[in-house]
């Protein structure tokens, strides 16, 4: 049996100096996060000036930058608790508040109380989805999102507004479509429906030459008509989770994306 003195740290040899690691803020990944936050802020300002096409572009810019900050942090080994919290706050502005305010200013204002009801439901669901994501990070299967991710939900809303603005359709002509889309996008964020996360795709792994050709073709297709192509892509993604859910139910496969491994943290109550 060992007494308490055995666990005391041994003195270091004379002349050896141990420097404590400083807890700092990494610049590179947080620059991407701040840029994404600016995209959301820019989108709100543009909506206030009735430039809804530029507001939608601001949201999509925030989406691209938000997808890069985490990957940059992992590739440069600069992950931090500060970065995680900063990313969540940025997401709430860019993908929660911004789409709600843009859609309200564009179309929902004309519906009175129903308009701000739909905008608030979306905003509240975005906050709930981000909070649940932070809490369930350790127990959710990394290959899937639990509910529609907030960037994709924001892209669905902003993409519709961008498409309508591009075709000259006024918000007053699409009020109830916007209302339904806001409720769909918001409520889908807080469901347990699985959406593919693309996180198992490694950027460091070599790929066939055909994959690069496919990426080039995809970029060319998007450039043909960005509002139409981007909105169509996110509509397909926004429906894909329900397709996967129905397919899993039909096959008798577990539909929850909460991991059931005994190595994971306590999962009681998370499958409901």
3D architecture notes:
The structure is a single chain. The protein has 272 residues and is an all-alpha fold. It has one domain: Four Helix Bundle (Hemerythrin (Met), subunit A) (Up-down Bundle). The protein is built from 8 helices and 2 strands, in the order ααααβααβαα. Helix 1 packs parallel to helix 3 and helix 4 packs parallel to helix 6. The relative contact order is 0.11.
Concise account of the structure shown:
With 272 residues, the protein is mostly helical. The chain is built from eight helices and two strands.
Return the domain count.
Answer: 1
Number of DSSP helical runs = 8
> Biggest β-sheet: count, sense, barrel?
2 strands, antiparallel
Uncertain residue ranges: 16-22, 260-272
Largest sheet, spatial ordering of strands: 1-2
**Roughly what percent helix?**
55-70%
- Report the structural category: mainly alpha
Superfamily (CATH H level) name: CDP-alcohol phosphotransferase transmembrane (TM) domain
CA-atom Rg in angstroms:
22 Å
